[in-house]
Design goal:
The complex is a heterodimer of chains A (461) and B (83). With 461 residues, chain A is α+β, with helices and mostly antiparallel strands. Helices cover 39% and strands 23% of the residues of chain A. In chain A, helix 7 crosses helix 8 (259-275), helix 8 (259-275) crosses helix 9 (317-331) and helix 12 (427-446) runs antiparallel to helix 13. Chain B is an all-alpha fold and 83 residues long. Chain B is globular and about 30 Å long. In chain B, helix 1 (3-17) crosses helix 3 (41-55) and helix 1 (3-17) packs across helix 4. Classes of the chains: A alpha+beta (461), B mainly alpha (83). Chain A binds chain B through residues 252-253, 256-258, 260-261, 287, 289-292, 324-325, 327-329, 331-332, 368-372, and chain B through 16, 21, 32-33, 35-36, 38, 40-46, 48-49, 61-66, 68-69.
Chain lengths: 461, 83
C-alpha cells in the first residue's frame, strides 16, 4: 500500500449541495450498510502507455484526481452540532491535500488481471468511507509482470455520482497517456447556483409539483407484507437479456420514445399490477447534467425525480407515449433543495395521516439510450430469447427501499436488476416480476400485449 | 425570426444536445422522431434546457409532447408561443 497526494485549492466548510444532501440522508437510512452507495470503476491502461511502471501510474493518477476538487471533500458536523452522525446535520469542506491509499495486487496474466481487478474493486468498496477523515477515493493497481495492467477506483458517493465516476475514469485514462481532458467545470458553481434566488425559485416550483402529486398518490407501492423476510432481507435478482435490449429498442423506435421510458412504462405496469391498482409512482434517479457547464463535473448531481403513470390501459402500447411524456417530466423534477423537499413531503404525509413514499425506485445507469441503426425485428427479438439469464446476486442486509431497479447495458443485452425487500417481494415473486417484465416487453413487439394478464403473472408466484 | 433561421437554429441545438452524434442537417431532415436518429432522453432534456434558455420560454410537458418529435414540430410549437 502506498499513498498518492491529491492537491488543490481549499474551500471553507459550507452546507452540503442538494445532491450531497440526498445521498447523505440515504446513507443515514442505510447505515451501517452504507458501503452500498460506494461506486467502483476499473480501467485497463491503453496499450500506448504500457508497460506502465507503478511510479508513473501513481503520479499520473494523482494528477488526474487533483483536477477535481470534490475528490478532496471531507464531511464535518454542522456548526454547533455534536459529533457527526450519518444522515445528521453536516457540512462539507474541500481540503488543500488528501492522501489516497493505493493498494497493489498481482496477477499472472492479463486474463487473470480482470478477475483480480473485480475482486479488488469489491474489496475497496466493501466498507463505508470514513466521511470525516478519509479521502473519498480509494485506488488499487493490478500488476502483471511488475507493470500496471488495471487501475481500480472506489469512490464515495458524496464526492461523485455515477456519471462523474465515468468522467473521472476518462480523465485517468488521458492522464496515463500524458494528456489532460477538457476543463472539468467548477463544482463550486453548483453550490452558488443552488443558493441563488433563481435556484431557490426553481427548487420551490419543483417541490410544489412533488407535493401536489404526493397528495393524490397511493401512500406506497408494495404495501402487502407477503412473507417472513429472508435472513439477509434484500434479495438481488438480475435478469440479463439480449431480447429485452432488442425489444425495448424496437418499441422505442416504433413509438418514438426512448428505451428508458419503455422500461419505466413496463416497470410501472408491473408495480401497479403487484399492488392491484392502476397508478404507479416510481422514483427515478436523475443525472442533472443537462446544462453544458455541468456535463463534465465530477460531483454528486444526481437526485431522485418523481415518475407517475396511470396504467389503466388494455394494451401495453397504450402506455408508451404517456410514459415518454412522464419520463421527461420526471427527469425535470430531479433538482431541488433536498431538505426543503423532505419537509414539504412530511407535511403532505401529516395532512393525509399516513406516510406517503413510493418505496420504489428506478436507476437507468446506461450511457447510451437507443442503439443506432435499423430497429430490431420481431424475429431478432425472438431468436435472442434463448440467451436470457436470471441469477441471484449477493443479498443486502439493509436498503431503505422495497424495490430498486437498476438498468445496465452489456452490448445489445440489458441487465434489469431488482433489489427487493423479501417481506413484500419474496424471492419467487421477485423473479416472477422481472420475468413478467421481459415477457411484457418482448410480446409487445409482436402486437397487443394485454395488461390484464400481468396481475396473474405476478400473483401466480 | 424567419422560418429557415428558426429551424436551422433548432437543428444546431439538436446537434449540440446529441454531443455530435447527430448532424444539424440530419436533424433538419428527420420527419418522424429525433429519437430515431439516436437522440437519448438525456439529449432531449439538454435540448429542452437549451431551448428554454435560448428562447426564454417554458416548454410545458404536462400534456401532449409530440412537439418534441422533430425540428419542424418544435419550431411550430415555438411560433405558437410568439417566437
Amino acid at each position: 500500500m502506498h499513498r498518492v497526494a491529491v492537491r488543490g485549492t481549499p474551500v471553507a466548510a459550507a452546507p452540503l449541495t442538494w445532491g450531497q444532501h440526498a445521498i447523505w440522508a440515504a446513507i443515514g437510512r442505510t447505515a451501517p450498510n452504507d458501503h452500498y452507495f460506494n461506486l467502483t470503476r476499473v480501467l485497463t491502461p491503453p496499450d500506448r502507455c504500457r508497460p506502465l511502471p507503478v511510479a508513473d501510474a501513481s503520479t499520473r493518477l494523482g494528477a488526474a484526481l487533483s483536477r477535481h476538487p470534490t475528490l478532496r471533500t471531507r464531511i464535518v458536523a454542522a456548526p454547533k452540532i455534536g459529533p457527526l452522525a450519518p444522515g445528521g446535520p453536516a457540512h462539507q469542506e474541500i481540503l488543500a491535500e488528501v492522501g489516497v491509499a493505493v493498494r497493489t495486487v498481482t496477477a499472472v496474466d492479463d486474463a487473470e488481471a480482470d478477475r483480480a481487478a473485480d475482486i479488488l474493486a469489491t474489496e475497496l468498496a466493501g466498507t463505508a468511507f470514513g466521511y470525516e477523515n478519509e479521502a473519498p477515493v480509494r485506488a488499487g493497481l493490478v500488476l502483471v509482470g511488475g507493470s500496471v495492467a488495471r487501475v481500480v477506483l472506489a469512490l464515495c458517493h458524496l464526492a461523485t455520482d455515477g456519471h462523474g465516476a465515468d468522467i473521472l475514469l476518462r480523465d485517468v485514462r488521458l492522464a496515463l497517456l500524458g494528456r489532460t481532458g477538457p476543463p472539468p467545470g467548477d463544482p463550486l458553481a453548483v453550490a452558488t447556483e443552488e443558493m441563488s434566488a433563481a435556484g431557490r425559485a426553481r427548487s420551490d416550483a419543483v417541490i410544489g409539483t412533488w407535493a401536489d402529486t404526493y397528495r393524490a398518490l397511493p401512500p406506497s407501492m408494495f404495501t402487502t407484507a407477503r412473507a417472513e423476510p429472508q435472513p439477509v432481507r434484500w434479495w438481488v435478482g438480475r435478469l440479463t437479456s439480449p431480447a429485452l435490449g432488442l425489444a425495448t429498442a424496437a418499441l422505442a423506435a416504433r413509438h418514438r420514445t426512448s428505451v428508458s421510458s419503455v422500461l419505466l412504462a413496463a416497470t410501472a405496469a408491473l408495480v401497479a399490477a403487484d399492488g392491484g391498482g392502476d397508478r404507479a409512482a416510481v422514483l427515478t434517479i436523475v443525472g442533472n447534467r443537462f446544462d453544458p457547464s455541468r456535463r463534465d463535473l465530477v460531483a454528486t448531481l444526481s437526485q431522485e425525480g418523481l415518475f407517475t403513470l396511470d396504467t389503466a390501459a388494455d394494451d401495453f402500447a397504450g402506455l408508451l407515449r404517456p410514459a415518454w411524456r412522464e419520463s421527461l417530466r420526471a427527469y425535470r423534477s430531479g433538482s431541488y433543495d433536498q431538505a426543503a423537499l423532505d419537509e414539504a413531503l412530511a407535511a403532505v404525509s401529516a395532512e393525509r395521516g399516513t406516510t406517503v413514499h413510493p418505496m420504489c425506485c428506478f436507476n437507468d445507469m446506461r450511457l447510451v439510450d437507443l442503439p443506432p441503426g435499423t430497429p430490431p425485428t420481431a424475429e431478432q427479438v425472438h431468436a435472442a430469447r434463448a440467451d436470457t439469464v436470471f441469477t441471484w446476486a449477493p443479498p443486502q442486509p439493509q436498503v431503505a427501499c422495497r424495490f430498486c431497479a437498476h438498468v445496465t447495458a452489456d452490448g445489445p443485452a440489458l441487465t434489469y436488476q431488482v433489489t427487493g425487500d423479501t417481506r413484500y417481494l419474496p424471492p419467487a415473486r421477485l423473479e416472477a416480476f422481472v420475468r413478467a417484465l421481459e415477457d411484457l416487453v418482448v410480446s409487445a413487439v409482436d402486437g397487443p400485449a394485454p395488461l390484464a394478464r400481468l396481475r396473474s403473472a405476478v400473483v401466480a408466484a | 425570426m424567419t422560418a429557415a433561421t428558426l429551424e436551422a437554429d433548432l437543428a444546431a441545438l439538436v446537434a449540440q444536445a446529441s454531443e455530435g452524434g447527430i448532424t444539424a442537417a440530419d436533424a433538419l431532415a428527420e420527419q418522424e422522431s429525433l429519437g430515431l436518429l439516436g437522440l437519448t432522453s438525456l439529449g432531449f432534456l439538454r435540448l429542452i434546457h437549451a431551448v428554454e434558455r435560448g428562447y426564454g420560454v417554458a416548454l410545458d410537458l404536462d400534456d401532449d409532447v409530440s412537439f418534441m418529435d422533430t425540428v419542424a414540430s418544435l419550431a411550430a410549437h415555438l411560433r405558437e408561443q410568439g417566437i
